[in-house]
Design a protein that fits this description.
With 386 residues, the protein is of the alpha+beta class. Helices cover 51% and strands 14% of the residues. A hairpin with a 6-residue loop joins strand 4 and strand 5. Helix 4 packs antiparallel against helix 5, helix 6 runs antiparallel to helix 7 and helix 7 packs antiparallel against helix 8. The chain starts with 7 loop residues before the first helix and ends in a 7-residue tail after the last helix.
Length: 386
């Protein structure tokens, strides 16, 4: 793929991560899933090379870069067939929120570990009855002396079984207005009253999904991230990186599927010429390549705006990047499977499992319909129906 928009440093990072991904690849990830394990070896090596914390501040052990660099890492690992989904959550969302809004003590406690991969943090926002409507979040935090008591439920929280803590989005009562306002709490995995149960997913991925129950989880005052009154700003500071990284996840997966299909189309011969010489095969693959390139351009724009401190501009671009990448990923995977025909559904070629996985980029962390709502309201100024 073309890299003319990238600096030499970015191109070098892309090449280095691609080489790491190639050493592990799809077979490694498939064996990890089959064994019900986690990709610890790849996570550890990526961390040791400085890739996991490339977006975090240097003074806390990070690389001092931004979302531009972190998205390159995830995209290239995905293109090699071995994406690390926890990168979306731990360094991108949680690391960013703590780096931007955490107290000095929280930064010292968490950022070095998030940067070197020795600590991981999950992120819990979605609720059974709230879906994408963050205004309906019912997880509430109430003061009890110097402590907080946190009560509520969360669903589809990735990697809670391996995370040292979970960044939970709750709501507190505004003393002046009585209204509930968002706030973020760091909840240690062994906190009393913090229960989890695994959700049975058709999705074949090493990262497990969980439902969480918080039953009067008692937290110290310093479990609150940043300022009690800046909750919404803090929340969206984490959601833009999440969308940028989901785009990287989708683009990487789409590139992996497309590369497998192109290799097959070059060598598979049924009549006189390889099947890739036929336009009915070649043109859809070319379209998939174009759409992945376009999605990456928007991802690069979103990362650039975010890293430059333009949260509003990044919000629009990150949503568009996530939308474009989700669509491009699904189309690329679908076309790859069709190119291989029956072989596209075999375990040997490893594409069939991506049919389900590709949908993640369309559905999570926000559905494409909610992104279209965002663009129609925020970008076009059209009225809301809700």
């Amino acid at each position: 793929m073309s890299t003319v928009l990238e600096t030499e440093e970015h191109q070098a990072l892309r090449a280095a991560v691609a080489a790491l991904g190639k050493r592990y690849g799809r077979d490694y990830m498939t064996s990890v899933v089959r064994d019900g394990d986690h990709p610890r070896e790849l996570w550890t090596e990526a961390a040791k090379l400085g890739y996991l914390g490339v977006n975090l501040p240097e003074e806390y052990g990070g690389g001092g870069g931004g979302m531009a660099e972190l998205s390159i890492v995830l995209e290239e690992l995905g293109a090699a067939g071995s994406p690390l989904l926890m990168m979306v959550v731990s360094p991108a969302i949680c690391g960013t929120v703590i780096a931007r809004f955490g107290t000095e003590a929280q930064k010292q406690q968490w950022l070095p570990g998030l940067a070197d991969g020795s600590l991981t943090m999950a992120f819990g926002i979605t609720e059974p009855d709230a879906g994408s409507n963050s205004h309906r979040i019912t997880t509430t935090a109430r003061k009890d002396g110097d402590n907080w008591l946190l009560t509520g439920r969360k669903v589809f929280v990735s990697g809670v079984d391996i995370a040292d803590a979970t960044l939970i989005v709750g709501r507190t009562e505004d003393a002046r207005t009585g209204r509930l306002k968002p706030c973020l709490f760091i909840v240690p995995r062994d906190a009393p009253g913090f229960g989890r149960s695994q959700i049975d997913m058709e999705l074949q991925a090493p990262e497990k999904q969980f439902e969480l129950v918080l039953d009067d989880v008692r937290l110290p005052a310093d479990a609150l991230v940043g300022d009690e009154d800046a909750g919404l700003l803090q929340l969206f500071a984490g959601l833009n990186p999440e969308r940028i990284m989901t785009a990287a996840f989708g683009i990487g997966m789409g590139r992996y599927a497309l590369a497998r299909a192109v290799d097959y189309a070059k060598t598979r011969q049924v009549w006189k010429e390889p099947i890739g010489s036929h336009q009915a095969i070649a043109h859809p693959l070319a379209q998939a390549h174009i759409e992945l390139e376009l999605a990456r351009l928007m991802m690069q724009k979103a990362a650039g705006l975010y890293d430059a401190g333009d949260d509003i501009g990044a919000g629009e671009a990150a949503n568009m990047a996530k939308y474009a990448a989700g669509e491009a990923c699904v189309k690329a995977v679908d076309q790859a499977v069709h190119t291989l025909g029956g072989n596209g559904l075999t375990r040997e070629y490893g594409l069939a499992s991506l049919i389900t996985a590709a949908r993640v980029a369309r559905i999570a962390p926000v559905s494409r319909e909610m992104i279209l709502n965002y663009v129609s309201h925020q970008s076009l100024g059209l009225p809301k129906s809700y």
